[in-house]
Amino acid sequence: MKKFNFISNMNSSFKDKKFKQGSYATISTIIIICIVVAVNLLVGKFNVKFDLTKNKLYTLSDQSKNILKSINKDVNIIALYQAGMEDKALKQILSQYEKVNNKIRVKYKDPQLYPEFVKKYNKDENIGEGNIIVECGNRFKVLSYSDLVSYSNYSQSLTAEQNITGAIVYVTSDKKLLIYNVQGHNEDSLSYNVINYLENQNYEIKNVNLLTDSIEADKGMLMIMGPKIDLTPNEISKVQSFLQKGGHVFISAPIMKNEPVNLNKLLLNYGVKLENALIVEGSSSNSLKNPLYIIPDNLNHRITEPITNSKYPIILRASHPITNVDVVRHTVKIEPLLKTSDKSYAKTNLQSEILDKEKRDLTGPFVVASAITDEIGEDDKNPKIVIVSSGNFVDESLTENGLGNTDLLLNSINWLANNTQNISVSPKDLSSNYLQLSGAKQLIFSGLVVIVIPLIILVSGIVVCIRRKNL
Q1: Which of 275, 292, 280 lies closest to 345, judged by CA?
Q2: Which residue in 20, 43, 153, 422 has the most C-beta neighbors within 10 A?
Q3: Is the peptide bond before 365 cis (omega within 30 degrees of 0)?
Q4: How much is the pTM?
Protein backbone atom coordinates (compact mmCIF):
# COMPACT_ATOMS: atom_id res chain seq x y z
CA MET A 1 0.00 0.00 0.00
CA LYS A 2 2.87 2.31 0.88
CA LYS A 3 4.50 1.51 -2.42
CA PHE A 4 1.31 2.40 -4.29
CA ASN A 5 1.04 5.69 -2.41
CA PHE A 6 4.68 6.53 -3.26
CA ILE A 7 4.10 5.86 -6.96
CA SER A 8 0.89 7.83 -6.84
CA ASN A 9 2.65 10.79 -5.20
CA MET A 10 5.39 10.62 -7.85
CA ASN A 11 2.87 10.71 -10.68
CA SER A 12 1.01 13.61 -9.11
CA SER A 13 4.25 15.55 -8.59
CA PHE A 14 5.09 15.18 -12.28
CA LYS A 15 1.72 16.71 -13.10
CA ASP A 16 2.25 19.51 -10.60
CA LYS A 17 2.37 23.02 -12.09
CA LYS A 18 5.56 23.96 -10.22
CA PHE A 19 7.34 20.88 -11.54
CA LYS A 20 6.33 21.69 -15.11
CA GLN A 21 7.57 25.27 -14.77
CA GLY A 22 10.86 24.06 -13.29
CA SER A 23 11.23 21.53 -16.09
CA TYR A 24 10.65 24.18 -18.76
CA ALA A 25 13.22 26.45 -17.13
CA THR A 26 15.78 23.63 -16.91
CA ILE A 27 15.26 22.55 -20.52
CA SER A 28 15.46 26.18 -21.73
CA THR A 29 18.72 26.67 -19.83
CA ILE A 30 20.21 23.48 -21.31
CA ILE A 31 19.19 24.54 -24.85
CA ILE A 32 20.73 28.02 -24.42
CA ILE A 33 23.97 26.51 -23.08
CA CYS A 34 24.12 24.11 -26.04
CA ILE A 35 23.58 26.98 -28.50
CA VAL A 36 26.33 29.07 -26.86
CA VAL A 37 28.76 26.12 -26.94
CA ALA A 38 27.92 25.37 -30.59
CA VAL A 39 28.38 29.02 -31.64
CA ASN A 40 31.75 29.19 -29.85
CA LEU A 41 32.90 25.98 -31.54
CA LEU A 42 31.88 27.32 -34.97
CA VAL A 43 33.54 30.70 -34.37
CA GLY A 44 36.74 28.97 -33.24
CA LYS A 45 36.74 26.59 -36.19
CA PHE A 46 36.19 29.24 -38.90
CA ASN A 47 38.21 31.96 -37.11
CA VAL A 48 35.30 34.39 -37.24
CA LYS A 49 36.10 37.75 -35.64
CA PHE A 50 34.16 40.97 -35.33
CA ASP A 51 35.68 44.42 -35.04
CA LEU A 52 33.55 46.15 -32.41
CA THR A 53 35.85 49.16 -31.96
CA LYS A 54 34.28 52.57 -32.53
CA ASN A 55 36.44 53.51 -35.54
CA LYS A 56 36.91 49.96 -36.91
CA LEU A 57 40.57 50.10 -35.93
CA TYR A 58 41.32 46.55 -37.03
CA THR A 59 39.30 46.55 -40.26
CA LEU A 60 40.75 47.78 -43.55
CA SER A 61 38.89 50.66 -45.20
CA ASP A 62 37.21 50.28 -48.58
CA GLN A 63 39.92 52.52 -50.08
CA SER A 64 42.65 50.09 -48.96
CA LYS A 65 40.71 47.06 -50.15
CA ASN A 66 40.20 48.55 -53.61
CA ILE A 67 43.92 49.32 -53.87
CA LEU A 68 44.98 45.88 -52.63
CA LYS A 69 42.66 44.04 -55.02
CA SER A 70 44.42 45.71 -57.96
CA ILE A 71 47.88 44.49 -56.86
CA ASN A 72 49.12 41.68 -59.11
CA LYS A 73 52.71 41.44 -57.82
CA ASP A 74 54.10 39.48 -54.89
CA VAL A 75 54.48 41.72 -51.85
CA ASN A 76 56.17 40.83 -48.57
CA ILE A 77 55.36 42.65 -45.34
CA ILE A 78 58.07 41.87 -42.79
CA ALA A 79 57.45 42.85 -39.18
CA LEU A 80 60.61 42.95 -37.04
CA TYR A 81 59.71 41.61 -33.61
CA GLN A 82 61.15 39.12 -31.18
CA ALA A 83 59.21 35.85 -31.06
CA GLY A 84 56.25 36.25 -28.71
CA MET A 85 56.73 40.04 -28.48
CA GLU A 86 54.65 41.01 -31.52
CA ASP A 87 52.30 43.97 -31.23
CA LYS A 88 48.85 42.35 -31.00
CA ALA A 89 46.99 45.28 -32.57
CA LEU A 90 49.42 45.50 -35.48
CA LYS A 91 49.32 41.73 -35.96
CA GLN A 92 45.53 41.92 -36.28
CA ILE A 93 45.79 44.68 -38.90
CA LEU A 94 48.49 42.88 -40.92
CA SER A 95 46.39 39.71 -41.05
CA GLN A 96 43.73 41.67 -42.95
CA TYR A 97 46.14 42.37 -45.81
CA GLU A 98 46.67 38.66 -46.47
CA LYS A 99 42.91 38.05 -46.49
CA VAL A 100 42.22 40.69 -49.16
CA ASN A 101 44.96 39.59 -51.59
CA ASN A 102 46.84 36.27 -51.44
CA LYS A 103 49.82 37.85 -53.22
CA ILE A 104 50.54 39.75 -50.01
CA ARG A 105 52.45 37.72 -47.43
CA VAL A 106 53.13 38.77 -43.84
CA LYS A 107 56.27 37.49 -42.15
CA TYR A 108 57.76 38.04 -38.69
CA LYS A 109 61.52 38.19 -38.19
CA ASP A 110 63.49 38.51 -34.97
CA PRO A 111 66.10 41.24 -35.70
CA GLN A 112 68.40 39.81 -33.04
CA LEU A 113 68.34 36.31 -34.50
CA TYR A 114 68.65 37.49 -38.12
CA PRO A 115 70.96 40.56 -38.08
CA GLU A 116 72.28 39.86 -41.60
CA PHE A 117 68.74 39.77 -42.98
CA VAL A 118 67.96 43.17 -41.43
CA LYS A 119 71.27 44.66 -42.52
CA LYS A 120 70.38 44.72 -46.22
CA TYR A 121 67.47 47.07 -45.52
CA ASN A 122 69.57 49.60 -43.58
CA LYS A 123 69.99 52.77 -45.59
CA ASP A 124 70.00 56.15 -43.92
CA GLU A 125 69.26 54.91 -40.41
CA ASN A 126 69.46 51.72 -38.40
CA ILE A 127 66.35 49.63 -38.28
CA GLY A 128 65.36 46.96 -35.81
CA GLU A 129 62.70 46.05 -33.28
CA GLY A 130 59.27 47.47 -34.18
CA ASN A 131 60.06 48.39 -37.79
CA ILE A 132 58.03 47.09 -40.72
CA ILE A 133 59.53 46.42 -44.14
CA VAL A 134 57.29 46.38 -47.23
CA GLU A 135 59.02 44.98 -50.30
CA CYS A 136 58.24 43.97 -53.86
CA GLY A 137 61.11 42.72 -56.00
CA ASN A 138 64.04 45.12 -55.55
CA ARG A 139 61.96 47.95 -54.13
CA PHE A 140 61.24 48.32 -50.43
CA LYS A 141 60.00 50.84 -47.88
CA VAL A 142 60.82 50.81 -44.16
CA LEU A 143 58.18 52.04 -41.69
CA SER A 144 59.04 53.06 -38.15
CA TYR A 145 56.76 53.00 -35.11
CA SER A 146 56.04 56.73 -35.63
CA ASP A 147 54.63 55.82 -39.06
CA LEU A 148 52.18 53.42 -37.43
CA VAL A 149 50.91 55.52 -34.52
CA SER A 150 50.88 59.31 -34.62
CA TYR A 151 50.61 61.70 -31.69
CA SER A 152 49.48 65.32 -31.80
CA ASN A 153 48.50 68.03 -29.37
CA TYR A 154 44.87 67.04 -29.69
CA SER A 155 44.72 63.33 -30.37
CA GLN A 156 46.41 60.00 -30.94
CA SER A 157 45.76 58.24 -34.23
CA LEU A 158 46.46 54.84 -35.73
CA THR A 159 48.20 55.51 -39.06
CA ALA A 160 49.33 51.92 -39.69
CA GLU A 161 46.83 51.23 -42.47
CA GLN A 162 47.46 54.58 -44.10
CA ASN A 163 51.22 54.08 -44.31
CA ILE A 164 51.30 50.33 -44.96
CA THR A 165 48.85 50.70 -47.86
CA GLY A 166 50.87 53.68 -49.12
CA ALA A 167 54.09 51.64 -48.90
CA ILE A 168 52.48 48.82 -50.92
CA VAL A 169 51.50 51.33 -53.63
CA TYR A 170 55.04 52.72 -53.58
CA VAL A 171 56.86 49.38 -53.99
CA THR A 172 54.48 47.98 -56.63
CA SER A 173 54.34 51.07 -58.88
CA ASP A 174 56.39 50.94 -62.05
CA LYS A 175 57.09 54.66 -62.32
CA LYS A 176 56.85 57.81 -60.24
CA LEU A 177 54.42 60.60 -61.03
CA LEU A 178 55.98 64.05 -61.13
CA ILE A 179 54.60 67.10 -59.31
CA TYR A 180 56.00 70.46 -60.40
CA ASN A 181 55.88 72.54 -57.21
CA VAL A 182 55.86 76.23 -58.23
CA GLN A 183 58.22 78.57 -56.36
CA GLY A 184 58.98 82.30 -56.51
CA HIS A 185 55.86 83.85 -54.95
CA ASN A 186 56.66 83.44 -51.24
CA GLU A 187 54.96 80.05 -51.14
CA ASP A 188 55.11 78.11 -47.86
CA SER A 189 57.26 74.97 -47.88
CA LEU A 190 55.53 71.61 -47.76
CA SER A 191 55.69 69.88 -44.39
CA TYR A 192 57.60 66.64 -43.89
CA ASN A 193 54.34 64.74 -43.36
CA VAL A 194 52.84 65.98 -46.62
CA ILE A 195 55.99 65.13 -48.59
CA ASN A 196 56.05 61.69 -46.95
CA TYR A 197 52.39 61.03 -47.83
CA LEU A 198 52.94 62.08 -51.44
CA GLU A 199 56.06 59.94 -51.76
CA ASN A 200 54.17 56.99 -50.27
CA GLN A 201 51.72 57.29 -53.14
CA ASN A 202 54.61 57.32 -55.60
CA TYR A 203 54.81 61.01 -56.39
CA GLU A 204 58.08 62.83 -56.93
CA ILE A 205 58.14 66.53 -56.05
CA LYS A 206 60.25 68.90 -58.14
CA ASN A 207 60.48 72.60 -57.26
CA VAL A 208 60.26 74.81 -60.36
CA ASN A 209 60.38 78.49 -61.27
CA LEU A 210 57.91 79.18 -64.08
CA LEU A 211 60.12 81.92 -65.51
CA THR A 212 63.21 79.74 -65.95
CA ASP A 213 62.21 76.05 -65.80
CA SER A 214 60.31 73.97 -68.34
CA ILE A 215 57.13 72.08 -67.41
CA GLU A 216 55.73 69.28 -69.55
CA ALA A 217 52.08 68.23 -69.33
CA ASP A 218 52.79 64.63 -70.34
CA LYS A 219 55.33 64.17 -67.54
CA GLY A 220 53.64 65.63 -64.48
CA MET A 221 51.12 67.98 -62.90
CA LEU A 222 51.52 71.51 -61.57
CA MET A 223 51.03 72.54 -57.94
CA ILE A 224 50.73 76.22 -56.97
CA MET A 225 50.70 76.09 -53.17
CA GLY A 226 49.83 79.31 -51.36
CA PRO A 227 51.44 82.12 -53.38
CA LYS A 228 51.50 85.39 -51.42
CA ILE A 229 51.80 87.53 -54.57
CA ASP A 230 50.12 87.24 -57.96
CA LEU A 231 51.76 85.34 -60.80
CA THR A 232 53.14 87.39 -63.70
CA PRO A 233 51.44 87.45 -67.14
CA ASN A 234 54.30 85.35 -68.58
CA GLU A 235 53.86 82.73 -65.85
CA ILE A 236 50.09 82.63 -66.40
CA SER A 237 50.69 82.18 -70.13
CA LYS A 238 52.95 79.20 -69.37
CA VAL A 239 50.33 77.64 -67.06
CA GLN A 240 47.64 78.20 -69.71
CA SER A 241 49.78 76.44 -72.32
CA PHE A 242 50.38 73.60 -69.85
CA LEU A 243 46.62 73.15 -69.42
CA GLN A 244 45.88 73.31 -73.14
CA LYS A 245 48.24 70.37 -73.65
CA GLY A 246 46.15 68.29 -71.23
CA GLY A 247 47.92 69.33 -68.04
CA HIS A 248 46.49 69.22 -64.53
CA VAL A 249 46.90 71.96 -61.94
CA PHE A 250 46.30 72.16 -58.18
CA ILE A 251 45.98 75.70 -56.77
CA SER A 252 45.81 76.74 -53.14
CA ALA A 253 45.17 80.49 -53.39
CA PRO A 254 45.24 82.67 -50.27
CA ILE A 255 43.58 86.06 -50.12
CA MET A 256 45.97 88.79 -51.25
CA LYS A 257 46.16 92.50 -50.45
CA ASN A 258 45.11 93.28 -54.00
CA GLU A 259 42.98 91.21 -56.34
CA PRO A 260 45.09 88.52 -58.13
CA VAL A 261 44.33 89.88 -61.58
CA ASN A 262 46.60 87.54 -63.51
CA LEU A 263 45.54 84.40 -61.64
CA ASN A 264 41.89 85.37 -62.14
CA LYS A 265 42.56 85.80 -65.85
CA LEU A 266 43.56 82.12 -65.96
CA LEU A 267 40.60 81.00 -63.84
CA LEU A 268 38.04 83.04 -65.81
CA ASN A 269 38.92 80.92 -68.82
CA TYR A 270 37.65 77.93 -66.83
CA GLY A 271 34.48 79.54 -65.48
CA VAL A 272 35.43 80.71 -61.98
CA LYS A 273 36.79 83.76 -60.22
CA LEU A 274 38.41 84.47 -56.85
CA GLU A 275 36.61 87.26 -55.00
CA ASN A 276 38.87 89.59 -53.05
CA ALA A 277 36.77 89.40 -49.89
CA LEU A 278 37.51 87.74 -46.56
CA ILE A 279 34.99 85.11 -45.43
CA VAL A 280 33.64 85.33 -41.89
CA GLU A 281 31.75 82.25 -40.69
CA GLY A 282 28.69 83.18 -38.64
CA SER A 283 27.85 79.61 -37.60
CA SER A 284 29.68 78.29 -34.53
CA SER A 285 29.32 74.71 -35.80
CA ASN A 286 31.14 75.71 -39.02
CA SER A 287 34.05 77.49 -37.36
CA LEU A 288 36.84 76.61 -34.96
CA LYS A 289 36.65 79.17 -32.11
CA ASN A 290 37.66 81.91 -34.56
CA PRO A 291 35.13 82.90 -37.32
CA LEU A 292 38.04 83.19 -39.78
CA TYR A 293 38.89 79.49 -39.20
CA ILE A 294 36.05 77.98 -41.17
CA ILE A 295 34.92 74.35 -41.21
CA PRO A 296 33.19 74.06 -44.59
CA ASP A 297 30.58 71.46 -45.49
CA ASN A 298 31.75 68.70 -47.83
CA LEU A 299 29.83 68.42 -51.08
CA ASN A 300 29.40 65.16 -52.97
CA HIS A 301 32.51 64.36 -55.06
CA ARG A 302 35.07 61.60 -55.48
CA ILE A 303 37.63 63.85 -53.74
CA THR A 304 35.55 64.61 -50.65
CA GLU A 305 33.66 61.31 -50.25
CA PRO A 306 36.35 59.52 -48.15
CA ILE A 307 36.74 62.60 -45.94
CA THR A 308 32.99 62.74 -45.37
CA ASN A 309 32.99 59.04 -44.46
CA SER A 310 35.86 59.49 -42.01
CA LYS A 311 34.01 62.43 -40.38
CA TYR A 312 37.25 64.41 -40.10
CA PRO A 313 36.67 68.15 -40.49
CA ILE A 314 38.59 70.34 -42.92
CA ILE A 315 39.77 73.69 -41.55
CA LEU A 316 40.56 76.61 -43.85
CA ARG A 317 42.01 79.91 -42.67
CA ALA A 318 41.32 83.31 -44.21
CA SER A 319 39.36 82.01 -47.19
CA HIS A 320 37.65 83.98 -49.92
CA PRO A 321 34.71 83.09 -52.20
CA ILE A 322 35.06 81.20 -55.48
CA THR A 323 32.26 82.38 -57.77
CA ASN A 324 31.12 81.06 -61.13
CA VAL A 325 31.11 83.47 -64.07
CA ASP A 326 28.03 83.93 -66.23
CA VAL A 327 29.59 82.98 -69.56
CA VAL A 328 31.69 79.84 -69.86
CA ARG A 329 32.52 77.30 -72.57
CA HIS A 330 30.08 74.39 -72.78
CA THR A 331 32.97 71.92 -72.37
CA VAL A 332 33.86 73.26 -68.91
CA LYS A 333 32.47 71.26 -65.98
CA ILE A 334 32.65 72.94 -62.54
CA GLU A 335 32.06 70.78 -59.44
CA PRO A 336 32.01 72.53 -56.03
CA LEU A 337 33.81 70.58 -53.28
CA LEU A 338 33.47 72.69 -50.13
CA LYS A 339 30.90 75.29 -49.07
CA THR A 340 30.41 77.61 -46.09
CA SER A 341 27.16 77.87 -44.11
CA ASP A 342 24.19 80.15 -44.85
CA LYS A 343 25.29 82.36 -41.94
CA SER A 344 28.63 83.22 -43.53
CA TYR A 345 29.46 86.57 -45.13
CA ALA A 346 32.54 88.07 -46.78
CA LYS A 347 34.21 91.38 -45.91
CA THR A 348 34.89 93.38 -49.08
CA ASN A 349 36.87 96.03 -47.24
CA LEU A 350 40.02 94.18 -46.20
CA GLN A 351 41.19 97.22 -44.21
CA SER A 352 38.08 97.25 -42.04
CA GLU A 353 38.61 96.71 -38.33
CA ILE A 354 34.97 95.71 -37.86
CA LEU A 355 34.32 91.97 -38.03
CA ASP A 356 30.52 92.33 -38.09
CA LYS A 357 28.74 92.38 -41.43
CA GLU A 358 28.64 95.76 -43.15
CA LYS A 359 26.51 97.13 -45.97
CA ARG A 360 28.81 96.22 -48.88
CA ASP A 361 29.78 92.80 -47.60
CA LEU A 362 28.80 89.69 -49.56
CA THR A 363 26.22 87.22 -48.27
CA GLY A 364 26.97 83.49 -48.09
CA PRO A 365 27.03 80.59 -48.52
CA PHE A 366 30.25 80.54 -50.53
CA VAL A 367 32.10 77.84 -52.44
CA VAL A 368 35.70 77.62 -51.14
CA ALA A 369 36.98 74.69 -53.23
CA SER A 370 36.11 73.47 -56.72
CA ALA A 371 37.14 70.77 -59.19
CA ILE A 372 37.11 71.88 -62.84
CA THR A 373 37.36 69.72 -65.96
CA ASP A 374 37.53 70.98 -69.55
CA GLU A 375 36.00 68.02 -71.41
CA ILE A 376 37.63 68.52 -74.80
CA GLY A 377 39.03 65.03 -75.46
CA GLU A 378 39.97 61.80 -73.77
CA ASP A 379 39.53 61.60 -69.99
CA ASP A 380 43.24 61.42 -69.14
CA LYS A 381 44.07 64.30 -71.50
CA ASN A 382 41.37 66.73 -70.42
CA PRO A 383 42.71 69.85 -68.65
CA LYS A 384 41.78 69.71 -64.95
CA ILE A 385 42.07 72.16 -62.07
CA VAL A 386 41.41 71.84 -58.35
CA ILE A 387 41.34 75.16 -56.54
CA VAL A 388 41.08 75.83 -52.80
CA SER A 389 40.59 79.47 -51.80
CA SER A 390 42.90 79.42 -48.81
CA GLY A 391 46.62 79.60 -48.12
CA ASN A 392 48.74 76.63 -47.13
CA PHE A 393 46.02 74.51 -45.51
CA VAL A 394 48.47 71.64 -44.97
CA ASP A 395 51.07 73.39 -42.84
CA GLU A 396 52.20 71.76 -39.58
CA SER A 397 49.37 73.28 -37.54
CA LEU A 398 46.65 72.00 -39.88
CA THR A 399 47.87 68.46 -40.50
CA GLU A 400 47.05 67.27 -36.99
CA ASN A 401 45.42 63.87 -36.78
CA GLY A 402 41.68 64.19 -36.64
CA LEU A 403 41.62 66.77 -39.47
CA GLY A 404 40.90 66.10 -43.14
CA ASN A 405 43.22 68.75 -44.59
CA THR A 406 45.94 66.36 -45.73
CA ASP A 407 43.33 64.05 -47.23
CA LEU A 408 41.89 66.97 -49.21
CA LEU A 409 45.29 67.61 -50.80
CA LEU A 410 46.14 63.94 -51.45
CA ASN A 411 42.69 63.12 -52.82
CA SER A 412 42.82 66.17 -55.10
CA ILE A 413 46.28 65.22 -56.42
CA ASN A 414 45.13 61.64 -57.05
CA TRP A 415 41.97 62.83 -58.80
CA LEU A 416 43.97 65.16 -61.02
CA ALA A 417 46.35 62.29 -61.88
CA ASN A 418 43.37 60.00 -62.68
CA ASN A 419 44.76 57.88 -59.87
CA THR A 420 41.40 57.51 -58.11
CA GLN A 421 42.14 54.06 -56.70
CA ASN A 422 44.78 55.71 -54.51
CA ILE A 423 42.38 58.13 -52.84
CA SER A 424 43.86 58.76 -49.41
CA VAL A 425 43.29 56.41 -46.48
CA SER A 426 42.48 58.43 -43.36
CA PRO A 427 44.13 57.72 -40.00
CA LYS A 428 41.88 56.32 -37.27
CA ASP A 429 41.38 58.24 -34.07
CA LEU A 430 42.52 56.41 -30.93
CA SER A 431 41.38 59.04 -28.46
CA SER A 432 38.73 58.11 -25.92
CA ASN A 433 35.44 59.93 -25.63
CA TYR A 434 34.52 60.72 -22.05
CA LEU A 435 30.99 61.28 -20.81
CA GLN A 436 30.77 64.71 -19.20
CA LEU A 437 28.10 64.92 -16.46
CA SER A 438 27.11 67.79 -14.23
CA GLY A 439 26.92 67.30 -10.44
CA ALA A 440 23.12 67.01 -10.55
CA LYS A 441 23.20 64.41 -13.32
CA GLN A 442 25.85 62.42 -11.44
CA LEU A 443 23.54 62.27 -8.40
CA ILE A 444 20.58 61.22 -10.57
CA PHE A 445 22.49 58.43 -12.33
CA SER A 446 24.09 57.28 -9.07
CA GLY A 447 20.68 57.06 -7.41
CA LEU A 448 19.31 55.20 -10.41
CA VAL A 449 22.10 52.60 -10.40
CA VAL A 450 22.59 52.23 -6.63
CA ILE A 451 19.00 52.55 -5.36
CA VAL A 452 16.26 52.48 -8.02
CA ILE A 453 17.40 49.52 -10.16
CA PRO A 454 18.28 47.24 -7.19
CA LEU A 455 14.92 48.18 -5.59
CA ILE A 456 13.02 47.26 -8.75
CA ILE A 457 14.83 43.90 -8.88
CA LEU A 458 14.10 43.26 -5.18
CA VAL A 459 10.39 44.11 -5.49
CA SER A 460 10.09 42.01 -8.66
CA GLY A 461 11.67 39.04 -6.85
CA ILE A 462 9.32 39.38 -3.89
CA VAL A 463 6.27 39.59 -6.19
CA VAL A 464 7.35 36.47 -8.12
CA CYS A 465 7.92 34.52 -4.89
CA ILE A 466 4.49 35.48 -3.49
CA ARG A 467 2.75 34.52 -6.72
CA ARG A 468 4.49 31.14 -6.85
CA LYS A 469 3.60 30.47 -3.23
CA ASN A 470 -0.07 31.09 -3.95
CA LEU A 471 -0.14 28.79 -6.97
Answers
A1: 280
A2: 422
A3: yes
A4: 0.70
